[in-house]
Structures are given as structure tokens and as C-alpha cells.
Design goal:
single chain, about 70 residues
Length: about 70
């Protein structure tokens, strides 16, 4: 005798498998986009570090040459 729920179970299992396949594809796409974002963030961190180092150098040079003026209060 054939299971009356077999067809329903097969359909549900097929939907689950299809949904998992789409989910896996979405996760792969998201991971690729995150790699791109991380690479751009790394470049931004490098630029920020360069700017910080430049600012510290300017501050040091102005201090050692007595050319540093106090900040104006607004």
C-alpha cells in the first residue's frame, strides 16, 4: 500500500531543497560583496593612517619651530 502523504512530503522536501540552494547562493553572493567592502575599508584605513601620521608630523614640526598658534575659540 502506498503512503498517502508521500507526494506531499516529496513536495515539501523539494521546496526545502530549493530554498536551501537559493539561500546558499545568496550567502555566496553576500560573502563576495563583503570581501569587496573589506578591501575598500582596508584602503580607507590606510588613507586614514597616512592622514593621522601627517597631522602628527605637522603638529611636531610646528611645536618644535615655535610656530604653533593656539586654536581660536568659536
Amino acid at each position: 500500500m502506498e503512503n498517502p502523504y508521500e507526494s506531499t512530503q516529496r513536495n515539501i522536501l523539494s521546496r526545502i531543497i530549493n530554498n536551501m540552494t537559493r539561500l546558499n547562493q545568496s550567502v555566496v553572493t553576500m560573502n563576495q560583496e563583503l570581501k569587496i567592502i573589506n578591501a575598500k575599508n582596508q584602503q580607507l584605513c590606510t588613507v586614514a593612517t597616512i592622514c593621522d601620521n601627517y597631522q602628527e608630523s605637522v603638529q611636531f614640526n610646528l611645536t618644535t619651530t615655535d610656530q604653533l598658534k593656539p586654536a581660536a575659540n568659536k
